[in-house]
Amino acid sequence: MAKDLDQDMDLGDSFISVSDEDGNEFELELLDTVGYKDNFYMCFVPADMDEDDDDYGLIILRSYEDENGESMLASVDDDEELNAVYDLFMERIMADEEADAEDGEN
């Protein structure tokens, strides 16, 4: 599932609007970005979905340039790659939460 990043960055710095292969449009909120093995990944959550919804969860997409030099996003199909990137995101989220907790103690 590839998405044209330039055309879809229309909701502000931390939100994007994307369309899937069926033409369904939805909004994502960017949580963080990370590099892994010479690739750049973005971690999102659905912005237009309730957190209690069964389909709510992290969405990890790989950023790349297509043959025309356009920035695109694609789903990560390799389970090993997806798990490694997920682990990196979770490490960063936990480190941020620990730093916030330490700041609150001071």
What is this structure, in a nutshell?
The protein has 106 residues and is an alpha+beta fold.
Walk me through what this model shows.
The chain is of the alpha+beta class and 106 residues long. The protein has one domain. It is 29% helix and 38% strand. Strands 1-6-5-4-3-2 form a 6-stranded antiparallel sheet. It is globular.
Percent of residues in β-strands: 35-45%
Structural class: alpha+beta
The strand count comes to 6
Helix count equals 2
Could you say how many structural domains there are in total? 1
Spatial strand order of the main sheet: 1-6-5-4-3-2
Q: What separation lies between the terminal Cα atoms?
A: 45 Å
What is Rg?
Answer: 15 Å
Q: How would you sum up the major sheet?
A: 6 strands, antiparallel
Morphology? globular
How do the helices and strands follow one another from N- to C-terminus?
A: EHEEEEEH
Poorly predicted parts: 1-12
**Can you give the mean pLDDT?**
81
Q: Looking at the chains present, what oligomeric state does this protein adopt?
A: single chain
* Range of helix content: 25-40%
